[in-house]
Amino acid sequence: MAKKTVVAHSHGNATLGKRILDRWQLYLLLILPLVWLITFCYVPMGGLVLAFKKYTAAKGIWGSPWVGVQNFQKFFNSAKSSIVIQNTLLLSLYQLFISFPIPILFALLLNVLPGVKYKKVIQTVTYIPYFFSTVVMVSLLFQLLDYRIGLYGALYTTLSGGKVAPNVLAQGSNFRHIYVWSGVWQATGYQAIIYIAALSSADQSLHEAAMIDGASRFQRVLHIDIPTILPTASIMLVLAVGNIMNVGYEKTLLMQNNLNLNYSEIISTYTYKVGLASGVPNFSLSTAIGMFNSVINFILLVLANFTSKRLSGNGIF
Description:
It is a single chain. This protein is an all-alpha fold. The chain has two domains: 1-40, no CATH class; 58-311, MetI-like (MetI-like fold, Orthogonal Bundle). 72% of the residues lie in helices and 0% in strands. The protein is built from 17 helices and no strands. It has helices spanning 2-12, 16-22, 24-42, 60-63, 70-77, 79-99, 101-112, 116-127, 134-145, 151-159, 175-200, 204-212, 217-242, 249-255, 261-264, 267-277, 283-311. Helix 11 packs across helix 13. The longest helix is centred in the C-terminal third of the chain and has 29 residues, at 283-311. Mean pLDDT is 86; it is low at 1-11.
């Protein structure tokens, strides 16, 4: 025992190089993801300098003239800025308030089902939509919600005695509802997995003691299951809040049309159009918009993490 203690003590005092050599196989596995992280996450940060320059292809990134914060001023002074910021916030908050609690409720309900086979079938069925690509997902929405030949249009015509259904895809006010609830259908099964895994670690002796004391199933969920997943839910909420401005542009862009543009134009789609889809691409302005978006996300992440640690003691850093 004394020999093991001495060995452990000497290993703890070993230099960093010695410890790396002792576990070189583990550090070797880190090389590939580390190279990917540096190449695709840190090296591109050098391009943020474009936000403070008037970029021209002939002069390149470093040769282009420095303009300071003019690109940021141009964005905030434009008529589009208030619209895209408002749409981004409304869509993100709507998605957060709906998409965050539903997987938790689904995991709690699935956990109380008595049959193991039923649980597996339900979990598999709800998990499958997550594998649909964004293009397939939006195509399904268009097919189902078509007011003439879609399932929605056929049911409306049948139930209304032959009347043509309103075109819900052409009404801008419906965009956020369609976007968020289709996302709930697609991602709930996948997002619930982490909460189901957390529930599986609950101490069964607590349930047994509660049952002996006469606690109902709802009381056990309230006092045992929910506290078990609370640390996991706190971290997931921090990550969700820190990502609140990053609404996926692919689905939004595919669902956009001229009739819902005032509701669907968000920061990510506007950045794409300014930087790539415009007839005269403005890389500097699009970089400035993207940088503003990232800074807001970073501030929200820090605030959410600080609040979570103060209230629950859980955080990501």
